Amino acid sequence: MGMRVPLIAGNWKMYKTREEALEFARRFKELYRDTDIRAAVIAPYTQLDVLVSAFKGSGVGVGAQNVHFEDEGAFTGEISVPMLKELGVDFCIVGHSERRQYFGETDETVNLKLKKLLRESDITPILCVGEVLAEREQGVQNEVVSGQLEKDLEGLTAEEAGRLVIAYEPVWAIGTGKTATPEQAEEMCAMIRNAVSEMFDEDTCDRVIIQYGGSVKPENATEIMNMDEIDGALVGGASLDPEKFMDIINF
Ligand code: PGA
C-alpha cells in the first residue's frame, strides 16, 4: 500500500434526519477515538453542516453525495462546489451508480464535476466506477470500467488525478448482499491502478486511493481490506449504524 493512507467512507444515501445524524455523530466520535484508519461520513446535504460541526477535531471527515459542475445558475435542485466549500466538507462522491442509473449522470458530467472539484476546491472527489451484472456475465467488466475511467478522467493533469479517491463498485454487489470475492475486487482494483498508470504515470497511480464498495460489512471487511491493491471501502447500508461501521474500520 506504500504511502497511501486507507480511507473507509460511509455512504448514507437518502437516510437519516438531522437529529439521527447528530445521534450517530455523538456515538461514533466516542468509538472512533484513537483510530488511525481514516474515516468519513458521506451524508445528505441537509445534514452536512451539523456533521461538520459535530466531527470538528475528531479526525472524521464529512462528504457530500453529489455536486453540480457550475458555480451557480438556473439549475433547480442542485448544489454547487462553492456551496459545499462554504460548509467545509472534505469529500464529494461523483458518479455513484445510483446517480448514473436514476438521475442521468453521464461520464461527461462526471468529468466536468471532477475538474471543478479538483481545480476550484480542496474537496477530495470519490469517483465511483463499476460494471452491471450483464456486463460481468459477458466478461466485459474490464472494458467497461477502463472505458469509464478514460472518459471520467479525460483532461486531468497527473497532479489532479493523484488527489482522487476511486471506488470500484460492481453495481450487482450494491445493496444486494452479494459481495464481489476478494479476488474479483483485487483484480479490478489492480486493473484500475494500471489504467491510471497508463493514462498518467507511475507516481500518480501510487498516490491514488482505490476503494472497494458493494455490500461491505463487518463479516467481510478483513478479507477485502487485506488485499494489496485495495486501500479502503465505500460502505452503504452497514455505515448507518455506528457500531457496525466502527467494526468495519477496525477490520
Ligand atoms: P452497500 O452500498 O454497502 O449498501 O452495498 C455501497 C454503495 O452504494 O456505496
Give the structure's gist in a few sentences:
The chain is an alpha/beta fold and 251 residues long. 44% of the residues lie in helices and 15% in strands. The structure holds 2-phosphoglycolic acid (PGA).
Q: How would you characterize the overall build of this protein?
A:
With 251 residues, the chain is of the alpha/beta class. 44% of the residues lie in helices and 15% in strands. It is built from twelve helices and eight strands. Strands 1-2-3-4-5-6-7-8 form an eight-stranded parallel beta barrel, surrounded by six helices. The longest helix is centred in the last third of the chain and has 18 residues, at 182-199. It is globular and about 45 Å long. Bound molecules: 2-phosphoglycolic acid. Residues 11, 169, 174-175, 213-216, 234-238 line the site of 2-phosphoglycolic acid (PGA).
